[in-house]
Amino acid sequence: MAFRSPPPLRAGSLVAVVAPASGFDREELFCGLAWLQARYRLRIDQRILARAGYLAGADEARAAVLAGAMLDDEVEGIVCARGGYGAMRILEALPWDRFAEQPKALVGFSDVTALHAVANARGITTVHGPNVTGLGRSITAAERASLIATLEGGALSPWTDLEVLVPGEASGPVIGGNLALVEAMAAAGRLVVPSGSIVVLEDVTERPYRIDRMLTALLVSGHLARASAIVFGQFTQCAPGPDGVTVDEVLLDRTRSLGIPVVARAPFGHGAPNHAFPLGRNATLRGGTLSWA
Predict the structure, then answer these.
(1) Which residue among 4, 49, 219, 234 sits deepest, i.e. has the most Cβ atoms within 10 Å of its Cβ?
(2) Could you tell me which CATH class the domain 14-152 is placed in?
(3) Is the separation of the CB atoms in 50 and 58 below 8 Å?
């Protein structure tokens, strides 16, 4: 499967900020916007400040704002305000065919994995990276530099000193994101894992047995059988239950039978650091190092 990258951004590019999922802390949003605005011009629809329970406004409004950004010829990139929940609810209302014809950078993680999965299935690379509210927190200069490099076509630093669970070497396009969303998209029939992919996965606030269940579902469905390697990021606040089984034990147990390289503790996820990287771009895993093509 061949992937196509949107045109790279540059300083001064017009970036739309959208809220396709949950609501957010406004102070964190404004801090993140301040950082973005120091490098890019911003376009923000006031509807992203709406609330509807655990969602950032009604489905129709969230879809309309995101669709508008996807179709706006002036907008060069789209950055999501927050993950949480809600992106899957609006997938069918978005103009994916036209977006694939003229793709633009789509940035976010966590629940935004649902949007990545649809775009990646159409052969469009996207950016797994901090949401705007994450940019407003105490992230490092290296994390912000990784976002700029990913958006603007700069050189990406390799990930080194990864924990090797199963040794080996593999190359292929990087696919995945948040484990819960990857599994949900697979259940919905919307996940495409090209043969030979390096599958990246992370999660937050999930007990080890739930991580076991999600990985097992991906195994039983055959999605992981198409992977050439698996790279686990952070599994934050995923403490053992009364049984004492750890998430590290689950990750190894559920993947070692695949016969492919598996590494853990890559620098992405809901903890720190959360480096940006391109989904759909080729990478090579050798031992504990992942390098970008």
Answers:
(1) 234
(2) alpha beta
(3) yes
Whole-model pTM: value is: 0.97
CB 48 within 8 A of CB 56: yes
- Please, what sign has the CA dihedral across residues 26, 51, 133, 146? negative
Farthest-apart Cα atoms in the chain, separation: 54
Domain locations along the chain: 14-152, 163-292
Could you tell me the strand order of the sheet in which 282-286 lies?
Answer: 163-166, 262-264, 227-236, 197-204, 169-178, 282-286, 289-292
Residues annotated as part of the active site: 110, 202, 270
pLDDT digits over 134-167, tens only? 998 778 999 999 999 999 999 999 999 999 999 9
Question: Comparing 14-152 with 163-292, is the CATH topology the same?
Answer: no
Q: What pLDDT, in 10s, does the model give residues 65-113?
A: 999 999 999 999 999 999 999 999 999 999 999 999 999 999 999 999 9
Q: At what angle do helices 208-220 and 179-187 cross, to 10 degrees?
A: 40
Structure tokens at 236: 């934050």
Q: Which residues of 25-48 are buried (b: 16+ CB within 10 A; e: fewer)?
A: eeebbeebbebbeebbeebbbebb
Query: What is the C-alpha separation between 181 and 91, in angstroms, rounded?
Result: 13
